[in-house]
């Protein structure tokens, strides 16, 4: 029994201990949690100190409070009431977020001491992506908290990607949601100070956020844990934004680890990792996988794909810079106003480089230059990383010495097998019956991912016997080259598919697939099935941006290169023995040398004048040629007996050429795009082309329509530019009944014979544009409604009765017409409709025209069309499916039906409708994004309701006196108002918070721009012809403004707030005639300013501020007559362009010595300028222009200007000497004119030292004595000299200089000279012969001009000048004879002007000049053989001696 009681006591004791254990654990947990929170807080002390210093520097009372940082900084915005939570959960959460380097905005309502800080708060909200609202008991008493919350909710409604995370701190969520308890008491107070609308907005915001799932903090012990949970959720959301989509990652782990190791993520150094390898090896996949793994460790990230293609675009560098800047700053279109790559580099240095970022640049090539795109690598903060992929390891190795390279090798067998099976079986492993075959194939594939994918796709769902056959083929291919790996898929194709693949690779990338399909069909290549095979096996793609446009052939670059390599391997040493040739050099060599070419199947080439040397025998060996694409200046060859296998001929001959003859027996496609002289007389045998499927003819001299093949094989017919000479011809369509596409444009025809258009039952596309008929076109189109397959109909004719009652086929999807549509409600498939220049009135609502029934119509355009509208215009008469509506030049349009039902309309344009008074239903266009009103008098009632509008253009709206308030157009980005002369006021400008571009042009009665100061997002402001504006609102808040242009504001007295334009890059002030000063204190702080243009500011005196703008790269000051001095410019060390002109009292320019970066200097119309000291120190100068500087007597030595490329001096009449031209080692152009006092220039040896000189022009310098060849007699006659680079020489107006040139022309050689101009003075006896004899050695001359040479009597033979295209002899009164014109085979223009002694021009020689286009013999009054010259017309345009035209100087 005792034992029993002992046991019972023990049991009671155990139960007691167990009962006390949970509370004890809770206490221990709280102690541990408090320590953990304390530790985490300590860990962020350093970050807090940094942030505190920022706040302190900004004058904040609270060291933890951050004032707004630069644009695009914040990720999380904390909305809270400071007295309630500042030292509680808000502080804990803030420190947790900062510790993870999440940029967080935290502000206290005590700091909001005025409305001035509110724009900064709104900006921070707009920048952030996640909002944490911390509701506390007294939260609702703060108007700032409620205002922020309302903006947060509005922002989240506009952008669903934004997230709101509510925390309820010691407050019941129901009180927040229903505004009860303390929230009810707070709102009772607010009702005494705020209007009902404001109260309603605040309550709605509380309702919405209070209903969200959040965290309820009921005691202080829970704060740390909840802050930890919130931080984790925030991090999770932010990390998701950086994840890239990739294919299923197979075998990537090792690659990822190696790249991560090279990134050295634990190091503080800036690192670049270069990933290289062959195409298709998986570089992009690895880069994406690494990016997804490590991006959370960086503040900002950017992944740029296809860099190589991006850089090939126009302004590709700027496009790439924009992409990177936008990604890192997390602002769309941030860099849209970047003018050049230097500007982009500056933004990257100033804004991007300070972040710790990860940037991946995928697929770069030789065009990628790190320093030209991103600037100096030393600009970036430590800890940042670049990953760059390329096929070329050399590109990566030249980036920097510290670039860590990683070569991607083939996949190991197990990973390769898994990847192969994913494409061949859509699973990770092969079925047991295919296991051996799969392993064998993977072994042969040698681990190339692209090969595994292509071969796997090839064998998908194929029988085992095919697998075995393909394996045998794979084993026979050598493994050395990548091409051979890719060739595996090629070798498994059938022969026909191979031919199609090689054709595409060599000729047809970017071509409409239907065109080559005709050729392939005739060659029995079965294009429909084989193109599908190529697509299924990922060897080609079919791309089209519009279902109604051609489907274009596309191919991966690697596969294209592989295809061309296959062709190259056919004969490495003898390219003319390959099946396809696309090299001009190879083609010309093959044809001229009559090489053995019976393997050639396709040629694409061009000749630029080389076609003359071709004879018909050159084509005798091309027996297998089926595709011939050639552009030639001249190709008058008869190859009709040789190219018997030709299927496709695409021929473009230069202006005035002749039509070659060709064989049509097997021709399937014929494209002749040339203005030939004989008007396609060679096409008379086209009717014999029994296999012709496609015929395209275009040219200016087409004189007759071809007779089409009797076989009725033609399916596509394009006829363009059949001119007036064809107007007496009939177009016989009797053999065109199988046409699918018919295009007739810019042709004249007498009539259509042989049937009607309606007989072409298979027609799918019909385009008739500017077709001029004499009769019966109406009858030919009468039965067009029977074309059951017609989808595209384009009719642009000026004949109001042509199709008045014609019914159109219901199959139409695209229709362009100038006529009323008789059966419009039946066209239920119509998607695009354009009515152009319809003279007959089109009713929008009657029994036959119920437009609203066309439920698929998306695009409607009415141009110069008369429309009748029912009396009740409030009815919706247009289909609600419309997305685009353009009304243009409908001059009689008084009213238009209501648009209120067009809920899908995004683009509305109304132009040149002068009597249209109102747009009914404008306010109902909820989806409208673009609105353009041009030269239309309508009011804009409802404009204020277009909340989705992003672009508004108003031009020439003369009757528009006021605009509805635009305060509600919060999404408007672009506003353009031009030539609205009656406009006196623009209301609501202050509400355009998102506006980025604002342009006003010629608003003469507009006196003020109230609200301009509130456009905080404005990037570009252009004000033109604002004659009534005297003052602008202060611009100090426009901190994003980059471009400010003010042009012709003659009464503008001052521009206030320039000092606040911290982002300003371009400032242009033109014709601001009342503006006197640009205060230094206003401009000195503009650290981003790059260019300043000041022109026509006639009262502007003070420019002292210019000397402080050290970031300037461009400075232009012209037409400022009161300016007597400029500040010293020596501090403008970044200036690259300086132009000063039209300042007649300015005597000197100081500080040139400091302009180390100056590349262009222009000084013009400066008659008082005497001194340009410092000129010799412009070591970067490339272009120098001095014009009309009469007081300038000398120039400093130019010997140090080694980079100068262009030197132009004109009308500097006081200039006596130019020193040290011999030091201009880079000079390419020297042009000195009308320097009347210039007496010395340079000598012969100096000229020879200018070994890069391309253009030399000297004239109008009568005192020039120390000239080109003044040192000729000092031993320079011993041997000939060569001026290799000189391409253009103009020597005129200086007697001594021309005589010197005549003496030296025998010794000088000009191998590159293409243009020579001589004359302007009388030269002595003996010099003329030297001059003319020397011309024979200039065989490269293309243009020769001789004028004012009175001593010339006979122009000797110039027959050696075989390249001469233009010959001008002007004002040669004693010229009696011209020899050797017949030898100038390239001559196009012959000008013999005022040669009064000339009696004959050798017409028989001119007949042989096939390229001759014009002959000018004005002023040749004694010419005797005019009748023989008339035979040259009409192919040669002749201006006769008494034509009456003014003869201008050369």
Layout of helices and strands, plus pairs?
Blueprint: H1 2-43, H2 45-57, E1 76-79, H3 82-85, H4 89-99, E2 104-106, H5 118-127, E3 130-135, H6 143-158, E4 163-169, H7 173-178, H8 182-190, H9 196-210, E5 215-217, H10 223-240, H11 253-263, E6 271-276, H12 283-294, E7 300-304, H13 307-312, H14 316-329, H15 341-352, E8 357-364, H16 370-373, E9 385-390, H17 393-397, E10 404-407, H18 413-424, H19 435-445, H20 449-459, H21 464-475, H22 482-491, H23 495-508, H24 514-522, H25 527-536, E11 541-543, E12 552-554, H26 557-569, E13 580-581, H27 584-592, E14 602-607, E15 627-632, E16 648-653, E17 669-673, E18 694-702, E19 716-722, E20 730-732, E21 741-749, E22 751-753, E23 765-773, H28 777-781, E24 792-796, E25 814-817, E26 832-836, E27 842-843, E28 859-863, E29 867-868, E30 884-888, E31 907-911, E32 930-934, E33 951-955, E34 974-978, E35 997-1001, E36 1020-1024, E37 1043-1047, E38 1066-1070, H29 1080-1083, E39 1091-1095, E40 1114-1118, E41 1137-1141, E42 1160-1164, E43 1183-1187, E44 1206-1210, E45 1229-1233, H30 1244-1249, E46 1255-1259, E47 1281-1282, E48 1288-1292, H31 1295-1304, E49 1308-1309, ...
Parallel strand pairs: 1-2, 1-3, 3-4, 4-5, 6-9, 6-10, 7-8, 8-9, 13-14, 14-15, 15-16, 16-17, 17-18, 18-19, 19-21, 20-22, 21-23, 23-24, 24-25, 25-26, 26-28, 27-29, 28-30, 30-31, 31-32, 32-33, 33-34, 34-35, 35-36, 36-37, 37-38, 38-39, 39-40, 40-41, 41-42, 42-43, 43-44, 44-45, 45-46, 46-48, ...
Antiparallel strand pairs: 11-12
Helix pairs in contact: 1-4, 4-10, 5-6, 6-9, 11-12, 14-15, 18-19, 18-20, 19-21, 20-22, 22-26, 23-25, 23-26, 31-32
Pfam families: NB-ARC, TIR, WHD_ROQ1
InterPro entries: Apaf_helical, Disease_R_plants, LRR_dom_sf, NB-ARC, P-loop_NTPase, TIR_dom, Toll_tir_struct_dom_sf, WHD_ROQ1-like
Transmembrane segments: 12-32
